[in-house]
Design brief:
CATH topology of the largest domain: Glutamine Phosphoribosylpyrophosphate, subunit 1, domain 1
Strand content: 15-25%
Helix content: 25-40%
Bound molecules: 6-O-phosphono-alpha-D-glucopyranose
Structural class: alpha/beta
CATH class of the largest domain: Alpha Beta
Number of strands: 26
Number of domains: 3
Distance between the termini: 10 Å
Largest sheet: 8 strands, antiparallel
Strand order of the largest sheet: 3-2-4-1-10-9-11-14
Radius of gyration: 26 Å
């Protein structure tokens, strides 16, 4: 969480870092700050609120300078307030730090530094970094390079950081360092950038270096140096970002979320592109080639992830069992990491993560590796930590997802899981050629069916209006549609703050049915599949208790029209692929509900897109 960005070069750094911050706001948006070196002195400002509030505060200040760092915060230690906003400075107000991560031992450090006479002005863990960096400067009257002081400080830190530091006494440089929180460096023409994510950089350069854990970078107008925390110089490859700034802009849509829902068909096409061989009814996954033989011997698959990615994993479990006949399970990464998991070399652990940086998923990956399991990442963000640390994996290529509520990534993750299941199923001869061909054909045709559903946007908006007065919702689904019910309910609560519970419809009688009355509507996933009749029975039970029902059903299903209050039809497809279609109306329903309520769809309260702290 939190976004940092820094710039050093020939241009005025202020608009560059402020624009960068706006692109990182999805990471946190409760306070913001900036510090700039204008060639003679340090200027800084910070405030509770969004980057727009920061811009307003400095709008009448004619600041100009070629070096700046900035921060957008998602509070962990200390409430969102002006004084807790970053940057944080040392006692002498010479050293300024912006930080993403958590200094776990900050209380101890703070007490020790207070005894030495340091005075703290905020409640944050980050402030100890500024004072720790100040320490070597206080201990000697001779010159000290800022990077050496930062190295010295980081030796005392337990926890995670992606940070950037500047100093009035050593002003022509930004020192950036990483452990556990992402940092990417941009190499422009006579200018260098550092940021939590490529979205803040891509407008200026596509040439980037991904900083790894325990690495540090020194950015000056003359160039970029990278070394490890023992100060050994490192040569690192320069990567190229393969998308451009338009992917990180709204492109005519009112919100990123809406744009990203409408990018669902393209997201599916992109994850499938070049990976389906229709004539062999199989998928071809370059990222799994190196572990092909190991995969063949795997006896069990465990999928682990957080949030929306976890719900995709629940569907993946069915895919692996049905298509590849491999025992599979899915577990929250936050549970898996502390569960003393019984996994070993005979298991494959699949990590699903849009950002590739979610702290719990990353730790689950490390735990799985410790036990000798084969680890596979399904990750959207190229170069991210989970992608790098997994033994093998596949990228989603869904492009940046900026709306906090995940939408196109979910669709892309289902596509990726299907590809892996197909790969395993054919590799293990568990599905015949004709069935493989059928899957491949249907997958290829899905984007067009998704477009058909997206045309119902206005119709779904009207339904959102109709149900707007309700504050509680039950979402029901069974088998493949059960995780869709969970995800649909998550979308609604995340952005509209309506209470929504996703439930396996078979479990309805074991509790939730007690909630049903005319004020507690149910959204039922009632597509034509092997459990359709069971769902119809649930619908009857709800009706008998005067519950209102909005159903997502298969086009042509006239029977359902007579049973429920409202229906959104989706096209017919194979039942295991139906979630890729049925989630779209639920995403749009949540979007319109939040929007009609006048809420900030892209930046819902208390949430952040990339949860890099535990
Ligand atoms: C946060 C986001 C969710 C996301 C989850 C997992 O909670 O708000 O949208 O599903 O993290 O993120 P990941 O990047 O690992 O998929």
């Amino acid at each position: 969480m939190c976004g940092i960005v820094g710039y050093v070069g020939k241009r005025n750094a202020l608009p560059i870092v402020l624009e960068g911050l706006k692109r990182l706001e999805y990471r946190g948006y409760d306070s913001a700050g900036v510090v700039l070196w204008d060639g003679e002195e340090i200027k800084f400002e910070k405030t509770a609120g969004r980057v727009a509030a920061l811009e307003k505060k400095i709008s009448n200040k004619p600041w100009q300078g070629n070096l700046a760092i900035a921060h957008t915060r998602w509070a962990t230690h200390g409430k969102p307030s002006d004084r807790n906003a970053h940057p944080h400075a040392d006692c002498a107000q010479k050293i300024y730090v912006v930080h993403n991560g958590i200094v776990e031992n900050y209380l101890e450090i703070r007490e020790a530094l207070t005894r030495e006479g340091h005075v703290f002005k905020s409640d944050t863990d980050t402030e100890v970094l500024a004072h720790l960096i100040e320490r070597p400067f206080l201990a000697t009257s001779g010159p000290i390079a800022l990077e050496d002081a930062v190295l010295d400080a980081l030796r005392h830190v337990v926890g995670t950081f992606g940070l950037a530091v500047i100093s009035k006494d050593d002003p022509q440089k930004i020192v950036a360092a990483r452990r556990g929180s992402p940092l990417i460096l941009g190499l422009g023409d006579g200018e260098y950038l550092a940021a939590s994510d490529a979205a803040a950089i891509v407008e200026h350069t596509k040439n980037v270096i991904y900083l790894h854990d325990n690495e540090m970078a020194l950015l000056t107008p003359q160039g970029l140096k990278i070394f490890n925390l023992s100060k050994k110089t490192l040569e690192k490859p320069v990567d190229t970002i393969n998308w451009d700034i338009s992917a990180a802009q709204k492109g005519g849509f009112a919100h990123f979320m809406k744009k990203e829902i409408f990018e669902g068909p393209a997201a599916l096409e992109n994850v499938l592109r070049g990976r389906l061989l229709e004539k062999d009814g199989v998928s071809k996954l370059g990222g799994l080639e190196s572990v092909r033989d190991k995969l063949l011997n795997v006896k069990r698959i465990l999928i682990t992830a957080c949030g929306t990615s976890y719900y995709a994993g629940l569907i993946g479990k069915y895919y692996f069992e049905e298509i590849a006949k491999v025992p599979a399970s899915a577990e929250y990464a936050s549970e898996f990491r502390y569960s003393n998991p019984v996994v070993d070399e005979s298991a494959a652990v699949i990590l699903i993560s849009q950002s590739g940086e979610t702290a719990d998923t990353l730790e689950a990956l490390r735990e799985a590796k410790k036990h000798g399991a084969l680890t596979l990442g399904i990750v959207n963000a190229v170069g991210s930590t989970i992608a790098r640390e997994s033994d093998a994996g596949i990228y989603n290529h869904a492009g940046p997802e900026i709306g906090v509520a995940s939408t196109k990534a979910f669709i892309s993750q289902l596509g990726a899981l299907m590809l892996v299941a197909l790969f395993l199923g054919r590799q293990r001869s568990k599905i015949p050629l004709n069935l493989g061909e059928k899957f491949v054909k249907e997958l290829k045709g899905l984007p067009a069916k998704m477009e058909w559903i997206l045309k119902k946007d206005e119709e779904i908006k009207k339904l959102a209006k109709k149900y707007l007065k309700h504050k509680n919702f039950l979402y029901l689904g069974r088998k493949y549609q059960f995780p869709v019910a969970l995800e649909g309910a998550l979308k609604l609560k995340e952005i509209s703050y309506r209470h929504a519970e996703g439930y396996a419809s078979g479990e309805m009688k074991h509790g939730p049915i007690a909630l049903i009355d005319e004020n507690f509507p149910t959204i039922v996933l009632a597509t034509k599949d092997m459990v359709y009749e069971k769902i119809i029975s649930n619908i009857e039970e709800i009706k008998a208790r005067s519950g209102k029902i909005l159903a997502v059903a298969t086009e042509g299903d006239d029977r359902i029209l007579k049973l429920v209050d409202d229906v959104i039809f989706i096209p017919q497809t194979l039942e295991m692929l139906a979630p890729i279609l049925s989630i779209i109306p639920l995403q749009l329903f949540a979007y319109h509900t939040a929007n009609l309520l006048g809420l900030d769809v892209d930046k819902p309260r208390n949430l952040a897109k990339s949860v890099t702290v535990e």
